[in-house]
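Per-residue structure
===
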Amino acid sequence: MFLLQASEFDWGPELRGAILSSFFYGYISTQLIGGLLGTKIGGVKLIGYGVLCTAILTILTPTAARYSVYLVIVLRIIEGVFEGVVYPGIHAVWSRWAPPAERTRLGSFAFSGSFVGTVFGYPLCGWLAEKYGWPSTFYVPGFVAIIWCVVWLTCITESPVDDKHITKEELNYIVDSIGPTDNNKISFLNYPWKDILTSMPVWAITCAHFCENWGFYTLLTQLPSYMNDVLKFNIGKGSLLSA
């Protein structure tokens, strides 16, 4: 998007950086809240409506860009708010669906989708931008995401007990492995916050996750600009190499 906008909008590196980073102000604000909401209302709804709202805002981005750059920044912050509940929602889904012995493997498989999406998304968006113009890189993924949300909210249930297509053997296996749960008794105040915040393993994981995300999202947001501004690659080649 922002590589092609240099000629249409004349946005400098600082402004492009502000637009790209604005998403994460909203994203970080709903990480903890997303986990609590996932426990209360269920991860399926949280993921479905979070992605749906993000998709709608994505489709509105080209119109917002032509109206005001500051509107784009606001839109990106709101996108981050809705997108921030998705990862916690995934954990909430697996807490009700994945037996403890399989939870790590299933969780890793689910989270790997974000990397697979990056590998395929970059070249696809580069091709769309070259062939149909930069707005198509917002319209196509946005409408695909809306279709996905409809399928997700229609076909996926919060609990295996509510799934009409699961076999009795699989249901019994999951229920027996996880055991009974009562999410209505869980509240924000009941969490052992002192033990969590003073746990060295928690801080070790937090630091490792911070470092990994720093590198990953820096490359994700800045590498396309580097390919274009420094190496002078066109959008198609730059997107393919960025992937």
Summary: The chain is about 80% helix and 0% strand.
